[in-house]
């Protein structure tokens, strides 16, 4: 049974979400504020963390930063009553994998939880049927999708699940166009404005990782999408 940490300061709302997730076969630990959430995270082994943004003692952004300092892989979902673009982008820059704006339907949360756990866990059946590889070598890099790791010059770095999903999609379509619509629907489920901006954040993160090797780059194809260019050695 997958263990989830839910950090939500609204007592009734938090209890409803906890009970709903437990009814759907998840083991849920509920913390009432950011400090309690940090203590719970240190004591447990969670496959997913759901964070409210506005909380007493420590807000969701601060807690996410602490979690990312010790664990770069565990998926994070932000719950927010704000619809401000800057807040949503800040969440993704902090290391979030998804966000849901209140009010929302409990089934929507469940769908996103299942989708993220599926991406960060076992390879889905469609991928197996298509025999899409989990390991890639390009330029001076080695990428392991199942482990969410990328190696360069003998050093390993861990990617977030969403970053790993995006990189694999780019590599599958290397030297060819990956349309924005295709990527957004495959990884975020919707091609709305906020998801598009969050994808741009992850593209920027990947570009920074590839700077040591000029043969590897991600080009913008204006109005269409992206192309991961991997040049052959001269």
Can you offer a commentary on this structure?
- With 234 residues, the chain is of the alpha/beta class.
- It has helices at 11-23, 34-43, 60-70, 85-94, 106-120, 125-130, 161-172, 180-187, 193-210; strands spanning 3-7, 27-31, 48-52, 76-80, 98-101, 135-138, 141-144, 149-152, 155-158, 177-179, 216-221, 225-230.
- The protein is globular.
Helix vs. strand class? alpha/beta
If strands are numbered along the chain, what order do they take across the biggest sheet? 2-1-3-4-5
In N-to-C order, the SSE pattern is EHEHEHEHEHHEEEEHEHHEE
Percent range for β-strand residues: 15-25%
Shape: globular
Radius of gyration: 18 Å
The number of E-state strands comes to 12
In the predicted model, the low-confidence regions spanning at least 5 consecutive residues are 122-130
By DSSP (H or I, 4+ residues per run), the number of helices equals 9
Q: How much helical structure, as a percent, in the residues?
A: 40-55%
Report how far the terminal alpha carbons are from each other.
Answer: 51 Å
Largest sheet: 5 strands, parallel
Average pLDDT rating: 86
Write the topology of this structure.
Elements: E1 3-7, H1 11-23, E2 27-31, H2 34-43, E3 48-52, H3 60-70, E4 76-80, H4 85-94, E5 98-101, H5 106-120, H6 125-130, E6 135-138, E7 141-144, E8 149-152, E9 155-158, H7 161-172, E10 177-179, H8 180-187, H9 193-210, E11 216-221, E12 225-230
Parallel strand pairs: 1-2, 1-3, 3-4, 4-5
Antiparallel strand pairs: 6-7, 7-8, 8-9, 10-12, 11-12
Helix pairs in contact: 2-3, 4-9, 7-9
């Amino acid at each position: 049974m997958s263990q989830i940490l839910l950090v939500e300061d609204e007592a009734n709302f938090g209890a409803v979400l906890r009970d709903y997730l437990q009814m759907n076969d998840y083991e849920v630990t509920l913390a009432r504020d950011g400090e309690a959430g940090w203590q719970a995270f240190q004591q447990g082994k969670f496959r997913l963390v759901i964070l409210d943004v506005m909380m007493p003692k420590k807000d969701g952004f601060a807690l996410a930063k602490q979690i990312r300092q010790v664990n770069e892989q565990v998926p994070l979902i932000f719950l927010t009553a704000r619809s401000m673009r800057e807040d949503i982008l800040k969440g993704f820059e902090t290391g979030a994998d998804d966000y849901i704006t209140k009010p929302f339907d409990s089934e929507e949360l469940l769908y996103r939880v299942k989708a993220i756990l599926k991406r960060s866990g076992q390879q889905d059946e469609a991928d197996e049927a298509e025999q899409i590889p989990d390991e890639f070598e390009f330029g001076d890099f080695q990428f392991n999708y199942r482990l969410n790791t990328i190696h360069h010059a003998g050093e390993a770095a861990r990617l977030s699940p969403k970053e790993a999903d995006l990189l694999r999609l780019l590599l599958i379509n290397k030297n060819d166009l990956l349309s924005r619509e295709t990527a957004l629907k495959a990884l975020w489920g919707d091609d709305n404005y906020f998801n598009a901006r969050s994808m741009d954040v992850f593209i920027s993160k990947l570009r920074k990782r590839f700077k040591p090797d000029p043969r590897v780059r991600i080009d913008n194809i204006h109005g269409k999408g992206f192309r991961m260019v991997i040049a052959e050695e001269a």
